[in-house]
Amino acid sequence: MLAWKMLKREFKSGDVMTLVIALVLSVGTVTGIGLFVDRLQKSFEIGAANLLAADRVISSDEPIVPLWQEQALDQKLNTANRVSFSSMLFSDAGLQLGQISAVSAAYPLRDSYLADTELFGTGVKTNAGPKSGEIWLSSRLASLLDVTLGAEVDVGEATFTVTQYLVRDPGSTGSVFSIAPRAIINLDDLAKTEVIIPGSRVRYHLLLSGEQQNLLDYDEWITPKLTDGIRLRTPKQRGERVGETISRAESFLLLAGTLAVALSGVAMALASSRYVKRHLIQFAVMKTMGATPKRLTRLTLYQLTILFLIGAVIGLLLGFLIQFVIGLLLQDLMAVELPSPDIQKLWLGVATGFVSLVAFCVPLMARLIQVTPLSVLNPSAPFQGNALFIYVAGLVGMYLLMFIYTGGFALPSIMFLSIAIIAVVISGLGYLLFRFGRARTQGATTGWQIGLASLYRRLLSNLFQLLVFTVILMLGLILYGIQANLISDWQKQLPENTPNHYLFNVLDDQVEGISSLANKYDIPISNWYPMVRGRVIEIKGIGVKEIYPRRADEPDLVEREINLTWADDTGAGSHILSGVFSSEGISIESQVAKEVNVTLGDELTLDIGGIQQTYPITSIREVDWSSMQPNFYIILPKAALSQFSANFVSSVFLTPATAPNFYKGMAEYPTVSMLNVGDLLKQIQAIVNQLSNALQLVLFFILSAGALVLVASIRVTLDERLEEGAILRTLGANKKLVRQALLVEFGALGFFAGCIASLTAEISLIALQIVLFKQDVTLHPLIWVLGPVVGTIIVTIIGVFASRAVLKVPPIKLLRAF
Amino acid sequence: MLKSEALVTKDLGHTVKTSEGPLTILKGINLEIKQGESVAIVGASGSGKSTLLGLIAGLDQHTDGEIYLQGHALSALDEEGRADLRAQYVGFVFQSFHLLPSLSALENVMLPAELKGDTSARETAIELLTKVGLDHRLNHYPRQLSGGEQQRVAIARAFASNAKILFADEPTGNLDSKNGVLISDLLFSLNEDNGTTLIMVTHDAKLAERCDRFVEIEAGELKES
Known about the structure:
The complex is a heterodimer. By secondary structure, chain A is α+β, with helices and mostly antiparallel strands. Chain A is built from 26 helices and 22 strands. Chain A has a 6-stranded mixed beta barrel with strand order 2-3-9-6-8-7. In chain A, helix 2 (14-52) packs antiparallel against helix 21, helix 12 runs antiparallel to helix 13 (447-457) and helix 14 (459-497) packs across helix 23 (735-771). Chain A is elongated, with a radius of gyration of 34 Å. The two termini of chain A are 33 Å apart. Chain B has a 6-stranded mixed β-sheet with strand order 6-7-8-3-9-10. In chain B, strands 2-1-4-5 form a 4-stranded antiparallel β-sheet, with helices on one face. Chain B is α/β, with parallel strands linked by helices. Chain A: Pfam families: FtsX. Chain A: InterPro entries: ABC3_permease_C, Membrane_comp_ABC_pdt. Chain A: Residues 256-369, 698-811 form the ABC3 transporter permease C-terminal domain.
């Protein structure tokens, strides 16, 4: 095939190779990001599913309709059952109220139990629950009942043998506020206990797991059947915050990746433009031989298709490899195993390759077909090409890709605007630097003079290079700054000061005892907050049901009972945004205030224990939820809560060394519930680590694409450079002078880029410190060294490498060619 | 009458638009060239001879008069039609050879046939390359060949399409005198063997003299001698 025959040889010439590498980089970057984020997303969904112990949980106060379970089985879903209730447990030593779960053999469908044979042990994973006749008790319940393994415990009419200490029951963390010490029995034994009688407070759960599509089908089937009091819970709802963060992270990573794609696109356009320049006459010659425009269009399309296939296949493999390697490296950081990537995500990479090729190559290649055959006789024959069309095609292509990545117009528009502003600023600074360099070195006798003159002479092309490398270096420096300073500070803060256990249901007279227990073992403990449960029923005098007729639309604040407190100040982890913290009114968290559309002075009516009270909003707080301090959507005036007997909440930071002592000490407070949030913290850290690692990877791709742009644009000017070099050398300049001129030209370009990058990166870091991390402003002297040094080295190496022919080819050969 | 002529022009003129208004490059050119005739177009640089060659070979659309190439009126054809006509009747030899660097000598000679979709051109191509004395260089790429050798490949390529009319633009212009003589010998002998019409633009008086006749262009007008 003629198209392939012609293309095959072209691979040896750099342009087609540049084109393919650029295509591979684009497809590889986007595929890598797409696949990796997909795995990340799924891993968090699995994490959330683990908290539910299933992919779906249907909960009801009535026994679950058997048909629902049959339907689930019909739809190839796995099912399990759990019935939870409070009941007294009896031992020889006494009796104790416990929260008991009766579970079927298949339970849990996701994650595992943690159980131990040691009292207050840390637990071993197991999937098999208690057999019939067995009971597993939490260490606290066992110590309250004063029983050890092998002892007998009665629940209702049935007697059970204690066979394990329950450390964690995966599906149980949802109900922390009703926590009594826990126990698990086999569902088959439930009837024997005879404790479930009409009027008992029992919650029935049907757990489901299986293929995503089957689950979605089931959701559709069951949703209309869900009446009041029946809830369908999904991991997505559960992990909504994390999910949102990840999807935002995906947009962010893809937008960063867009830079690699855009640069690759520019490299493709540059390579195409040189390719076109070199092939115009060839196409004209073919036209003289009678090749019709149709025939040449077909020929070009075949060639582009071949290039696309090669680029897409290698790019996809590269993307696949990259996400695989990252997945491997980060496996240890993850709370759950990373699921395998979804092949469907590959289309994103393929689409990127296709759009890039169409936007950046096709308009240029079209020139080949439009070339007049007259060019063979008169190479300067007027060419009917529209340069504007080529730029517009590139921009539209980039915009389209960004739209695909982010699914909206807002982010791409903001990014286009930002890039335009950055481009203007950097070009302005660059122009001044180039002019300064030129003005200081008049003449053409030293490498310095020739090199700096070259920078100024190819002003537009060099300004573009400067822009590209400044942005790359700036991103690298910002990332370095964030990782080296900001995140590591934040990470250091987390383990040292951040509480990892919440304490609930603490009675007034227990507060002092628990505080002194913590102090005894040097365990950090945060402030105590009194807490009652209440519900927002009216906003600005209008009933919540009236404002949100559909339950699905209800914001967090009104959807369920919330925890309320009163306090003298905002406490750690939050600060007042507007208004004054006052004993006359409500302090509300800023995000929920936005969700229910209230502001200072608006009134909220709350139902607390059946008593309705209305208060104005006197302050709006911003809460740092990641501080893990007890925090509340709403803080009430003390007067509002004084008539209710409050429980107290606090949080402590336990280490593996202090935890056993604290657990043992807490056995004295059997009614107090503890919630371990350490796992959640690990998740947050994992996200931060993953994101910064992923960003580094994306940056590497951006740098590669930037290098390719430099190489491609040097190639565009290569003929001109070769001619200049030849003339210089013919006129008596030695190789050393020509080399020096190249070193100065690219060294200065890299140095200038590095200086501007350091400046802009420092400004960005200061902004980040103030706005995002809320830290004191510190300068980063290392950045000021790294920018110019790294910039000079990288750009010089790439530049001199790409133009090495100027030094290698003997001048006589060059002169003959011109 | 027109069918017996390889090329006829009637009051051929060409005007181009420039920023300073229309510029007439050719005016009132009347030419009749018979089948098998060899004609040299001579003239000073900038006289319009290359433009004339481009127009009569159907590489560009003229603005005035008419051109009949093998009996076909060129003004009636669009680029696709002219391309078809070129494929059918026309061969070219250029001053700068214009071989495709990505193709070997053999592939370059096969190209005109391949562009027509004919894939059985290999033997004809080898035969032609043997005729021009390059049978030992079949798989060499243009940059591995000397200027004279490249022009020989180009001549083989021009004859490969069974052209009825061969247009040559300064075919020896880029060659030394020894190679120039070799190439012109080759061109005329192949032309005779194949009975093609040869229309050549040249500065070289000796080369022009070898043609059956020559026409001179001066300031865009014909001065037949």
